[in-house]
Structure formats: C-alpha cells, structure tokens
Records
---
Amino acid sequence: MRNFLYASLSALALMAGAASLPSTAFAEDWLETAAKPFEGSEINVIFLDRPGYRAIIELLPEFEKKTGIKVNYEIVPYENTREKQVLNFTSNGDLTIALVDLVWIGEFAENGWITPIEEFTSDASITDPNLKLDGFFPLLLEAFGSWGGKTYGLPFDNYSGLLFYNSCQLKEAGFDKPPATWDELLKDYAPKLTDAGKNRYAFALQSRRGETQSADSFMRVLWPFGGSLLNKEFKSNLMSEGSQKGLQFRQDLMKFMPPGIVSYDHAEAVNALAQGQVSMITEWSAFYGTLTDPATSKLGDCLAVAPEPAGPAGRLPALGGFSLAVAEQAPDDLKKASWLFIQWATSEEIARPYVEAGGVSGRMSIYEQPDIKAKYKFVEPMVASWQKGVPEFRPRFPAWPAISEVIAEWGTKMMLGEVSVEGGAKEIGTRMEDILGKEGYYDGKRELLQ
C-alpha cells in the first residue's frame, strides 16, 4: 500500500517554504499589533480533558492579555468531539476553530469545513514573521494538518505511542529492563507481573468501545505483527496471517489485564499504572505529565519510559495527534482572530512553557534543548518515533469514522469472546468493504489514497 503520510513530504517541504514568511527574530509586539483590529472579539474551540489542553488553558491569559481576544473553550470527551463538531459545522454554528484528529482531516477538508492556511499566510498583517512551518516535525505537519496537497492546520496536541512502566515492579519480578518485544512481554514478563489475588496485572490496553477500541486497541496490534486494515486495493486485509496473529495476541494478553479492560479509556489505563495496579501500558506521550504528577500518581522515581515493543514486523509505534484549523463557517474577522490564536498556540515562542505545563509541542527545536531532554523521560523515544512513525497506523480518508464504528463494535465483541478472532475479522471486513463501496472507492469515483 502506498504511503499515506510520506508520499507528499517533498511537496510539503516546498509548500512550507513558500507559506512561511522570512524568518526574523520574534518581535515582541507583533501579536499585539496584528490583533488590534480584532480586540474584543471572541473565538470558539473545543478542547479535550487531556494534559495538552490543560497546558494551553494555563497559558491562555497571556494570549488574551496581549491580544484582547477572548478564547471560549468547551471541554468535551474525545468520543463526542467529532460528532459535536460535525453538527456545529453542518448547522452553521459558532465554532471558529476546528480541532482535527489525524483521522478526521480528510473528512473535514473534503467537506469544506476548514480553511487552507494559504488564505492567511498570504496576508503579512496577520501572519507571524517567524511562523516557520519547517520548524514542525515534517511527519506531524503532514499527518495532522495536510490533505490533498494543502495545509489546513498546525500540529497542536501530538502523540507517539510509548511504553510507560513501573521499573520498581519490574525489578521486583527480576527484570532490569523493559520488554523489547511483544512476545517477551506476553511470555516472560506478563506471568511474573500478574497476581489476580492481589489485583495486580502486567498490562492494561485501553479498549473502551469507540475510537479508543478501534485506534488504540485494535489497530495497535496489527502493524507490529505484519498485518494491516486494508491491502493495496483497499480491500480488507484482516484475514492475512499478520493481522490474525496480532488480533490473537491481543486475546492472549487479556488474561494478564485487569477485569473489565474493555471499559478502560485512556484515563483508566493511565490511572491503573499510576496507582500500581498494572506494571505496563502503551499510551500516548501526552500522558507523561499525568504520570509524573504527585497529585495523580504514586509512581515517583519508579516511572520509566521506553519505545513500544517490537513485533515480528519490527518496532512500529502508534501515531496520533491533532491540529488546530480555522473553521470555514466563521466570519472573516473571526477567521483572522482564530488564525492568530492557532499560530500562538503552536509557536516556537511558547513551546517551552507549553511543554513545561504538560503539553507536547510539534516543534523540533524545543526537544533539542539539553535541559528538556534531561528532564522529560519521554522525549528521546518520542522524537525517535517521529523520525519514521507508522504512516498507515490509522487511515485518514473520509470514510474512517464509519469504519471506526464497525471496528469498535466487533473489536469489542472479539475481546469479550462473543465472536472469534476470525469471525470478527470477517464481519469487519465485509462491513468495511460495503462502506468503501458506497463511498465510491471501488468504481473510480474517489481517489484510493491521499
């Protein structure tokens, strides 16, 4: 299958150079000057209840003081975020900024709900002279903000799948390092780290029905085992040897997970590790702040971070994250005010305070700082994963939301034992191909790959 994210990196680099204005030292009064025509404006955005959003909320008073622009935000559970935004866009609502997940970019762009940034970068009066699109990790800018050769959003809340583990519990079980492979985790580590009588388990895989089940659980076990959701003809590849091995591995690992794992979202998985109930989780880099906060975690110096384990197909960590884009439905003045906020929230200028407040910046330069690399254990494995990543970890095409619902339903049934791995894979494949057929992927009405 051709590469979803890397295919246009060369074009992206050229576009980034064209879109960025000449780089200069950041002028302290640039934002204030640009914002004067919009003083008193109010812009609206949806945030999640996650560390990156709490970090930007902490910094918001600085933006509002500088600009006189009020940022109204609503905190919404991830599982409801896409639906709430789509309803707002289709009813010409009040959102002026779109929060765009990696897998929503195709849908949002093709429906005309978000505005290409070239509409704003061509206007020097509202564009940071130090915008530097080439300062973002290329993988993130392409994956989270770009579609069809255009950039729509800037990377804001950025994730790499990492192995977080309790080094003290591993040491007590006789291990001086984390498992290098999924096979080691299952066969060597999991039995020694699990004691159901004491409510202690080796691993927790967030698997709540919804996007958490489809992306964070189901898709996570496909690629490392040589599987994939689709083949190059956009037909189901879930009956392949690699896909079946990965899905069966998940079933085998469940005996070393807490009861009710199918109801675990991110918060539950992170809390299980933080409170000592489980020894290992594979979670997004953005949760590092939660796991190091004494108010929410008992781990202390026992917290350690490593890359996700490797499978038979190699080390293929999960990739996830969001961009902030201007909503097409917004009036012109609020579009411009929203663009000012998006630039500020993703800028190199606030990358350090954002990271120190618990966010994960998409800017390369912040992770080159020696003190940042020394202080935050997640930086090295995260940055390494962003050099390569898994381009097709989750398909970005517009049909993904409908397919995600199918995977969530039948992936959950698999885990609960209501259907076999083979039976569930067949059911997902049939329903997925029906969705893609109706969407025009098989009759030439729609391009297969972006």
---
Amino acid sequence: MNNLNDLDRVAKSITELKEKVPLVQCITNYVTINDCANILLAFGASPAMCEAYDEVFNFVKLSSALYINVGTLTKEQEEAAVLASISAKMNNIPVVLDPVACGAIPRKLSVINRIFELGRVDIIKGNIGEIKFLAGEASKVRGVDSLENSEGALESCIRLANKLNCVVVATGKEDFITDGKRSAAIQNGTEMLTKVTGSGCMLGALCGGMAGSCEDKFIAAVAAVLSMNIAGEGAYEEAKVPGTFKVKLMDHIYCLSEEKLKEEGKVIWK
C-alpha cells in the first residue's frame, strides 16, 4: 500500500522542478547524449552537455546538479568527470553517477572510485547487475546489460547505500530505491523501455534534474524513476513499436502532472 504522504511529496516535486528549471550539467555517453538533453527539456529542466576539461570545473558552479555517465568514457571525459565532481564537492552541487558497464570493464571502476575519493556522489543509478557489482557481490552482466533478476536486489542497494552514504537506484523488472534507511519498490513500467537505446541514460538525466530541484535526494530519485515508468506506460499504450514509442515517451514526460503520478503510481514503501 502506498504511503500517501510520501507519494504526495514525490508528486509535488515534479511541479517544483518545473518552477525551478534546474540547470543540469551532463558528462555523458555519445550514444544517447541528444536523448538526455531532450528528455531534460521535456521534463522541465535545462540541460548543458559541458564536458571539456578546461570548462567543467567552473561550469559546475553555475549548475543545479551534475550528471556523470561513464558509458563511452574517453580520456578527456574521465579527467573532466573527476574534476567536475571535485568542483561539485567544493560548491555543494549534487551529483548523479551512472556506472554503465562497470562490471564488464575494469577501468570504469577505477574512475568511479576516484570520483568517490576526490569528489561526491549523491545518487547512484544503475541496473541491478551494476549495483550488485559495486556492492562487492557476484553479478551477471553482458556489456551494458544486466542478466540479474530482482532477487536480493533491494538488499544489495541497502548495503551499497550505507557503504557509500548515498541514494542507490537499481533498475530492472521492478525498480528499487533506497538511502539505506528508507526504501521503495516501484512496480510501474513497461518492457518496451528495454527495446530502445538510452532509456537508462535518460533516467539518469531525470535523476539529475530532480536532484537539482529537490533537497531530499531519496524523494528525488523516486520521483525520477516513477516519472520515467509512468511515461513509458503511457507511451506504450499509444505505440507498440520502438521507434514511435521513443517519440511518445518524450511527449508523455512533457505531459506529466502531480495528479497523474498520484493516480497511477505503484510504489511499495519499505
């Protein structure tokens, strides 16, 4: 059963984002950079795809949040991501980290560790395989994809959240969010989100938007995941094929409202 007070807070945060129009600096992968920019705009945020090493430190100071995605990590991106996270720590700017393929490519873990050592991370958003890997557990991955089911996922999230003192989001057939004390499982969504490139990256960007406008990062992460999943359900009702679905997904993100989240949200609070 939903905790209406928490669901009300989640829904209200959508309106607050649109009022604040947070500026989200994105250092993200080249496969989905345009998707991330457009979904932030549709959501009501302002994207800035600033990743040049000589620019990121100062640009973070202007931003409401920083989103780091290590999916197609170039050497300049690597150094820029670490430097930007240092600036975020110094200037109290929230950071969302998307550890794409960290379980498949060892170099990514070393970059993630540098970000945690030198900078800050407020929200980690990954698939279940990536989260289990970061929690120090055996995980099944294939490139950027997780082969894990939901068994033990929430427990892994809680361990990682307590270890790193941040909010953890694990996506799968059921999505889990926790700050180590409060937890939520979201049962909205559609399998069609796995049939288009960039749904995970776009969700990471939405987490950045919410982190930049909502003080409670647990509520922020729940709002981002719930928004993506409800928009996905609405898009799938209108489009049963991937190409049209992706266009409709953007439309439904744009049309989200407090009322829709409260009426359709399937959140189990734990």
